[in-house]
Design brief:
heterodimer, A: 2 domains, four-stranded mixed β-sheet, three-stranded mixed β-sheet, B: mainly alpha, 0% strand, binds zinc ion
Chain lengths: 155, 259
């Protein structure tokens, strides 16, 4: 049905519109887990790296990529898993970080803890637990507004 | 890098990969047994996430083991259709959860070894092993950090928590030695540049755990006796079989059932 191969730029644009299944406010490209998109003859090859090796969202992510690309008329599609270099939260885009914060999740920081409360922006914070509602998050609390919040772990 | 002379045979490599995958599988299952039972919600979530990481790493190791073996077994087949004598995990990880302190002590003793093993494996001559180690080491770093904090917090906590942590250490220390004893499989891995000599990881391990036990006001047992037989599969403790009846029953009762 596709008479001409869509450009890689177009494909990246489609992928940019695929939300993360667990944090739908950011897209898969915001998260930085799509490492490469290439045409191999008439097969579109998409390279994806997992955030955490046991993250249950990984299979859903692959399914969502496939569904989105097939919806745009891609017939020959190969999804490749890349483990190395391992995903790091440094690959999250600035736009992704901003979207996370306005959603109420503190974005990852190199210092290893959240910079400020995503609600009141206070820097008076305490850690509740190193783990949170998904493998990628930890639980923190703001000691000014007293609200607990998720922090996207820096790995 | 390795020459054809030192390359391990398929059987030895399969064996090594099963050891890595069975450690994370058995410990991952054990930790998952806490789901819904932990003392506080935050710990429940932390334990479940740790288990999830370990099971995820298992998939990577056992998938590769299945490919190396080339006999049509994938990670699920290896996890759910082998019997107790085919498991190659350390005796430490199959020990029951006990109380929360015992679970945390087991995790700490394992994580401290696991992270140094994975760090060494990142330099493996086998690119696939190096990639799995690189991925897993990030998670293991986080696990060790949490286990260390918790061992110190509980060891240097109340009289009750201190007593329980000391009991856990006394109980589990005899399972530490097995991590550092090499056999023919390890020697083949060392010769091929695939994995480190287990004994080479011991000095750094001792330094780390000694520092943590000092901070936790815990006393390491003097006796260095170590039980063996888990990673060789020769003599598992009675606990593993019981665990497998829970872990494997669905696939055994309804073979090849899928979601
Ligand atoms: Zn606040």
């Amino acid at each position: 049905m596709v008479v001409e191969k869509p450009s890689l730029e177009t494909v990246w644009g489609w992928l940019h519109a695929v939300p993360d299944p667990e944090i739908p406010v950011i897209s898969l490209t915001d998260l930085g887990i799509i490492r490469d998109v290439q045409w191999q003859d008439d097969t579109l090859e998409v390279t994806v790296t997992p955030t955490y090796s046991g993250c249950p969202a990984t299979t859903i992510i692959n399914l969502d990529i496939e569904t989105a690309l097939r919806g745009h008329g891609i017939e020959k599609l190969a999804l490749k898993r890349q483990l190395s270099p391992a995903w790091t939260s440094d690959w999250m885009t600035d736009a992704g970080r901003a979207k996370l914060e306005s959603y109420g999740i503190a974005p990852p920081q190199p210092a290893g803890g959240p910079e400020r409360c995503p609600r009141c922006k206070s820097t008076q914070l305490e850690k509740i637990s190193q783990f949170g509602s998904t493998p990628c998050k930890a639980q923190w609390r703001c000691t000014d507004c007293l609200e607990p919040f998720d922090y996207f772990k820096c790995i | 890098m390795s020459t054809s002379q030192t390359e391990p045979n398929k059987g030895e490599l399969f064996e090594f990969l099963c050891r890595m995958g069975d450690n994370t599988l058995v410990l991952g299952h054990r930790v998952s047994e806490w789901c819904g039972h932990a003392p506080v919600l935050e710990e429940d979530i932390a334990l479940a996430n740790t288990a999830l990481d370990l099971i995820g790493q298992t998939t990577l190791w056992l998938d590769l083991a299945g490919k190396v073996e080339d006999a049509g077994r994938d990670a699920d087949r290896l996890a759910f259709h082998r019997d107790v004598w085919d498991f190659r995990n350390l005796l430490l990880v199959e020990q029951p959860n006990g109380d929360f302190g015992q679970t945390i002590m087991r995790q700490f003793l394992f994580d401290a070894w696991h992270l140094s093993q994975l760090t060494a494996l990142m330099e493996s001559s086998d690119a696939q092993i190096a990639a799995i180690a690189e991925k897993s080491s990030k998670e293991a770093t986080y696990h060790l950090e949490r286990a260390t904090d918790t061992v110190i917090g509980l060891g240097d906590g109340t009289d009750e928590s201190h007593r329980r942590m000391q009991n856990a250490l006394d109980l589990l220390w005899p399972y530490v030695g097995e991590m550092f004893v090499a056999d023919a499989v390890d020697e083949a891995m060392v010769a091929a540049g695939i994995a480190p000599d287990p004994a080479s990881l011991r000095p750094a391990y001792d330094t780390l755990v000694n520092d943590v036990f000092t901070a936790a006001t815990l006393t390491k047992p003097q006796d260095d006796f170590g039980h063996r037989g888990g990673k060789s599969g020769k003599r598992h403790s009675e606990h593993l079989g019981h665990m497998l009846t829970q872990m494997q029953w669905l696939q055994r009762a309804y073979p090849d059932a899928t979601w």
